[in-house]
Structure formats: structure tokens, C-alpha cells
Amino acid sequence: MLIGIKHYNDWVWHVIGWSLVFMLSLLGALSRDGFTESLTFTLLALFFYILIVYSNVYVFIPWLYFKQGIFIYTLACLLWLVLLTFLRAQVSGWVYTYFFSGKSQPILLKQYSTVLIGNLFIFLFSFVLLLILRYRLVSQTATMLKMENQKAALDLLQSRVQPHFLFNTLNNIYFEAVKESPLTAQLIEKLSDMMRYFTEESHQEKVLLSKELQFIDHYIDLELIRMRYPPSIQFTRSVSENTMIPPMLLITFIENIFKHGIDKTSPQNEVFISLRQEGQQLIFITQNSLPAISVIQKSGSGLSNLERRLALIYSSNFELSIKKTTSNFTATLVIPL
After folding, report:
1. Which end of the chain has fewer CB within 10 Å, C or N?
2. Bridge partner list, 328
3. What is the pTM of this model?
4. Is 6's pLDDT higher than 80?
5. Higher confidence at residue 228 or residue 334?
6. According to the lineage, what is the superkingdom (predicted)?
7. Average pLDDT score over residue span 211-222
8. Which domains does the chain have, with CATH numbers?
9. Alpha-carbon span 125 to 205, nearest angstrom
10. CA-to-CA distance for 239 and 52, rounded, in angstroms?
11. How far is the C-alpha of 164 from the C-alpha of 336, rounded, in Å?
12. Helix, coil or strand: residue 330
């Protein structure tokens, strides 16, 4: 469905809008006919108006225009309007004959033309309604995204316990470690780079993919030194590292592997990571083997939080899938570039 009516206020605005249409139509009809006849035919017309508007907004546009193309959409709309014009004219003639006139009268071509013109006008009005609904949806999404960004910024600020002090201290430790243990110095440098990326880059709207990948590589290296049996990791990538993406999107999958998908008592863990660019899509896949007794007891909140963030950034224009079998756990993310 292209646009949904999810909140009470949305329903209220729809009711108010149709009430205004009803009142204006009724006032116009009262200038020609009596109250009962005007009320009857106004309600009948309103039923067909609602049918035309919502069928176009919620059925024809999302399911035909966007998926089948403009030709199929236009043809279907024309046939639908002709059918509704015929039905409305027939029903109106039947109601007039049996409730107001008492005798059958033929429906003239002029009456069909009048009904068709009214239906076409309401059909065009449906596009105005569509623009209003889309504007409200975009406004609500922008507000939610702003709130999420503000919350993330607040959390980030709360986590910044004197970052300059930490970086300066790490630099001092790094220079001392270079003298005694070059390997330790390298690890400190990677940790420093990760902290700097997190504090200085993660609040940006988009970052270079190369920086995101460097952050992931450092994270993996630091995780491996903590493990008695480091897993076998194959990380293939076929992308342009100048590509820009929202920060901290990919790391969630890697964190989940080390937090929930590694048997730390087994030397047989295998991890496969693939990142590739196909046209205007970025495809990221992680797969880790599972032991006979799975160590994934409960998935964390990372993926659910990520899915909410993806929905705010890309609406429904992304794919996130999780598959678990007896032997492996696979997560796939597809986002547009």
C-alpha cells in the first residue's frame, strides 16, 4: 500500500474532508430539488466519489502505475471510470424511478455525460489527496528521523567522556607501546581510529564507504585478539570505496556475529562476509557457521534498531533478511545508492 491511514488524526481529516464535499454537494442539489431527493442523490454520489478516490490512491497507483507502468494504469482507470459511470447512472435512474417519479424513464446520453464529467473531476481530485497524504507522510518521517538523530546525538554526547583527554592519553600510551611492543601499539592505534570515527563521523548523514570498512576491519582485529580460538573469516568486497553511505549501518551485522554467533569454546567457527555493488544497489551479506548446539540463544536489539533506522532513511526501499538453518546463520542487507 502506497500510503496508509494509521493514526486517529488521519481518519479525522478524511472524515472532515468528505463532510465538506458532502455539504457542498447537498447545498448545490437543494437549489434544484427537495431535501429528501437532494440528500438521497448526494449520498449516492458521495459513495461513488469515495470509491473513485480511494481505488486510485490505494489500488491503481501503487499496484498498477508503479508496478505495471503508465499504459496499464491509464487503461485500467479508463475502464474503471466507464464502469462506475454506467453503474452510477443506472442506480440513480432506478432510485429516481421507484422512490420519486413512479414511472420508468430512459437514461439519456446527456445524463451519462454529466455523470462521467463528475467522475472525472473527482478522479483528478484524488491526485490532490495523494499529494496531501504524501506530504503528511514525508513530514512525519522527517520529524521521526530528526528525533532519532537528536536522540543519537544526545547518546553520543553522553558517551563522550572528555574525548580529547582519551585521545591524548591513547597517543601517549601508543608511543610508549611502540618501544616495548609494536603489535600492542598497532592495536592501540586501531582502537584510537575507531573511537575517532565513532565520535567525529557517526553523526554525519553520510560517510565514505572506505571509512566504514576501515572501522569494520579495526573492529574485527580487536575482537580476534580477545578470542582463544579466532574464527576463520573471509571478507570479500567488490565496491567503489568512494561510495557514500549512512554511517554505522554495516557494523551491526559484524557485532552480532561476535556477540551471538561465535562458539568461543570451539576452534571450528567460520565467518563469510561479502560486500558488493550491483548497479545502484549495495549488497552486504554475513554468514557464520553454527555449532551442533547453537550459541545463539537470543538475538540482540541491534538488528531491530537497525531496521527501524533503515525504515526512517529509506522508507520501504531496502531489503533486510535473516535466515537461520541448522548449520549457519545468514543476514542480508540491500540498500540503494
Report:
1. N
2. 289
3. 0.50
4. no
5. 334
6. Bacteria
7. 86
8. 8-156 (no CATH), 227-336 (3.30.565.10)
9. 37
10. 47
11. 36
12. strand
Q: Give the pLDDT score at 162.
A: 47
On the CB side of 332, CA atoms within 13 Å amount to 10
Band (pLDDT 50/70/90 cuts) for residue 320 is: very high
Contact between 290 and 326 under an 8 Å Cβ cutoff? The reply is yes
The per-residue pLDDT for 166 is: 55
Listed residue (113, 106, 105) closest to 85, CA to CA: 113
- The cell numbers describing 305, all together, are 534498531
**Element spanning 1, H or E:** none
Please give the helix or strand (H or E) that residue 231 lies within, else none: none
Write out the DSSP string of 68-114: H-HHHHHHHHHHHHHHHHHHHHHHHHHHHIIIIISS--PPPHHHHHH
Residue 31: which residues within 8 A CB-CB, separation 6 or more? none
Sheet containing 328-336: give its strands across.
232-238, 270-278, 281-289, 328-336, 319-324
pLDDT of residue 150 exceeding 80: no
